[in-house]
Amino acid sequence: MSASPPLESKINPSPYRGDIDGLRAFAVIAVVVYHVFPRWLPGGFCGVDVFFVISGFLITRQISHREISFVSFYTRRVRRLAPALLCVLLATVGAGLLFLLPNEISALGMACFAGATFLSNVFSWQTQGYFDRAASLQPLLHLWSLGVEEQFYLFWPALIAFSRSKAFSLTKVTLVTGLISFAIGLTSAFFAPAADFYLPFSRIWEFMAGAGLVLGGRKLERLSLRWRTIGSGAGLFCLVVAVFQLRQDWFFPSPTALFPVSGAALLIAAGPETWLARYILAAPPARWLGSISYPLYLWHWPLIAYEHLVHGVSHTHRSTGYAIITLSLILAALTTRFVEAPLRWKTPERRTVIGLLSALAVTAILGLTLRAWPGHSTALGNDTPGISLEKINLAEQDGIFPITQHMHVEHIQGLTVGIIGSDPANAILFTGDSLLFQWGPRVDALFAQGRLKQTVIFISGPSCAPLPVEKPAKGFTYCNAMSEVQDRILAKWSVHTIVMGALWERVFGPPPEWPAKKIRAEERLRTLSAHGKRKIVFIMPTPISTRFDPAHMVTRHFTHLSLDKDALQNGIPVAPMRAEHAAMTAFLMGIAQDTGSSTLDMTQVVCGSVETCFPLMNDGTPKFADQMHLRPDFTQTLTSRLDDILIAPAP
């Protein structure tokens, strides 16, 4: 394609801006720190949005000049993106072949294909949410943002060319495109949050914010240094608020990404002459970090994901986190010096591009090959009959808050309200935290079999107590709405039985607090039971052990695997676990006796024995998703006294 005519408002080419490299440094620091130490920068994930604004600005500035053809543009994009990406893809796959299980290698192969074809965001949209528990175990998850960028590179030049051919105002096209994208994002935030996060339609407005700075360049140039300084300060304020205050469940990216997007746009618009740009963003350390930000972003996440795979998904130990950051910096610097720089600047252009595109194609084929033929795990030999490593691994990736097939779900004041059935005159209310919600699959199975005789309504939230005796931890303040939502449901539905379940030790806290909390609990129970007209059932504490956790059944090393064979084959003694919960069990039974409620002990049916708790089902599949939450595959088949409540006719 030949060079295109100039834009209606031609902007002269600008020299290198060190402050933009500094802004890149801020963005990559935010992302890396969020991934390694999420408590330090809880909103650090918005660094990716800063990158999108920068890309919108730089790419629009580049293709706005008659000297730059689209062929040249795409050639430069390949030379910029492919070298480091190929290094990370091949290194990640090579490391995974050393200690991953076959099903993990298969998934990694598909992720490698998606990464090499710049479709990682589409792949991630179809497989998991960015903030899901299993996402922490995906070594190439972070390539979703590269997919969004590459799709922008295909979309935006084509739209510019179309606008020129039709003599449309590019400024108006940019504004309309941004507004449409933002509207799509707002809608998707409520109805399709995964698509909102991963797909480009709801992200384009962030690129348009950067593009608009180029199109409004003449007006920005007229601003005085004073106003530029004020703008840069406001931009920094927005970014600081974003990285410290944003949370993953705050309708992100729309509309809350306005904070990082506005911050980045204000800093770019302020130009390189402000004090903040000259002495902070354009300082040599910031410029250097910005210059390696792309490979640093690529390298850091596979290191974190493999650390999670080996040592479990938990808050990374500080020394380990420092080691990951240091190694990421070293690898990024080496990649920039010995891979990016030679292939981007010092080799023949045409030959390099053909070679890089060919390498991406071969890498994509390698990924598809691993997807189809992942190999076989022989690390444990043949002395583990009845134990499936693949099933244990898949159980480790299970979620712990299952929405079932026949459950109609809505969210009221932050709580999940799930309804199975439709008879308003014959209902059972299940209320509590995730340990209560885990029984949803059994209710759903009875409904599918036509055996459910009641409508079952779940009111639940992670770490939410069914009784108003607990002060929710920071980040779980929505749990305060539990009593209000319960009352709303009870007013609307004819509920004859209420089933409660929770991590009771957390709900009631240490024993010295029990007497006061017992009084509040019994007052609420009398209200809920309508002074004896409704039946209340407590699900008693269920077994808890780290040895139930699939992540602890298989111990990973970077060269081999080992099994907790004693627990898997012989089970875990029940008596110590019962003793651990004995005081709480007695306390709950006292409350039940005082209020005329009943209790339901599920320990024996979960464990399969009175004396020993077996963590595996008969087919070798784990019963638990972690140390306490049962997996849907297990609960949906579990016959217990709970069934008597669900299949009995209404009283």
TrEMBL record:
InterPro entries: Acyl_transf_3_dom, Acyltransferase_3, SGNH. Keywords: Membrane, Transmembrane, Transmembrane helix. The keyword Transmembrane applies. Residues 19-314 form the Acyltransferase domain. It comes from the Bacteria. The chain crosses the membrane at residues 40-60, 81-101, 107-125, 173-191, 197-215, 227-244, 250-269, 276-299, 319-340, 352-373. One of its GO terms (cellular component) is membrane. GO terms for biological process: lipopolysaccharide biosynthetic process. GO terms for molecular function: acyltransferase activity, transferring groups other than amino-acyl groups. This is Acyltransferase. It comes from Acetobacter aceti.
